[in-house]
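Board notes, transcribed. Complex of a protein with flavin-adenine dinucleotide.
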Amino acid sequence: MRQETLARSAWRVFHLRSATLNGKKGMMDIWILVQQRHFGIEEVTFGLIAEARHIIADVGKFGRITAVAFGNGLSEELPKLGAYGADRVIYLQEEDVAGYHGELFARELVRLVRRDKPSYLLTAQSAEADDLAPRLAALLETALISRTVDFKIGKNSQPYAVRTVSNGYLFEEIQIECPAPVIISFLPSVLTPDDPNERVRAEIQIEPLAAQPSDLKTKLIEVTEADPETLSLEEADVIVAGGRGVGKGESFDIIYQLAKALGACVGGTRPVIDWQTLPFESQIGQTGKTVAPRLIVNCGVSGANEYTAGMENSHLVIAINKDPRARIFRFADLGIIGDVHEILPTLIKRIQDLKDSGQASSAIYV
Ligand SMILES: Cc1cc2nc3c(=O)[nH]c(=O)nc-3n(C[C@H](O)[C@H](O)[C@H](O)COP(=O)(O)OP(=O)(O)OC[C@H]3O[C@@H](n4cnc5c(N)ncnc54)[C@H](O)[C@@H]3O)c2cc1C
């Protein structure tokens, strides 16, 4: 599927020049950065483990996957990393670390990388990774390949990456020639986990943080949750997407009401952007954003392939359309045949009732 997406677009070949990537002789150690939210490991982390496994298979030699996690409250989640294929987990546990701290995490990672000398460091594009990865690249004097959609190791151990540029209109292929560890930051939508094996355990190494608060130039004061409606589509966990079937102007308000009830970000198809009901940044699809939220609710969307190219990696897909033959139903885990303007008010009321009774999250994610 990834190849199909790439084939649809022009590739611009661009060769990055610097020194030679040699990695360590013998075992290849690939590190992945664990992404977490509300004391749970995010699924993209398991996709990164699968990506690391493919890299090791490409090279055809013995390799180890190390997952690096920070913070506190994650201990019960760590066995999942082994089940999804990590061989080792380094858990930098610190009671006082609540949330992301770029300066602290970068310092600790640099210390560990210098100690263990991994060949590659993989992250998934996110607000935190977009902050951390450039810090690491600068401190380690290595390359950072961002917005990566494909990575492989060719003949003579030569690594190549393909990344999106020009707002997704173009892809460039990069030949990587620099000292290890190269940092590869993947678009979350291209990361798909392998099936977990609960019987497999990773070696878990718990380490205290070495940096003292007094060493740091910045101090984390408070973490405030963003309003989901203001998030960019790529970062949103839940998206409500409206299509031509919803209608213009006031008709589209129902989409905002559903988004508010679900704590979702609003996206749309090209006709909705052409009407200027939504800004261009809200367009999902081949010439818009590629998204992979946990839940996407498509309302009055036909499912043209230019649209589905941008959302087909979403985890749970709901479609509401009055045409039972609409293509969007082929992508839906749950399809509702009917008029959005009849269904959505009932759905919104039901969600609100569930929220009021404290059962909303289980209802939404089932
Ligand atoms: C080069 C190129 C690039 C493109 N890139 C993109 C892109 O990035 N993103 C994108 O979205 N499009 C893109 N398009 C356009 C794409 O081909 C489709 O035209 C577009 O996705 C259709 O949008 P839609 O589903 O909202 O509208 P339609 O295809 O018109 O579908 C509307 C749907 O709503 C249903 N409906 C109508 N009324 C109701 C109602 N009251 N209740 C429930 N259902 C109802 C209908 O049954 C229908 O299925 C591109 C096209 C080209 C040629």
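The chain has ten helices and 17 strands. Residues 43-59 form the longest helix (17 residues).
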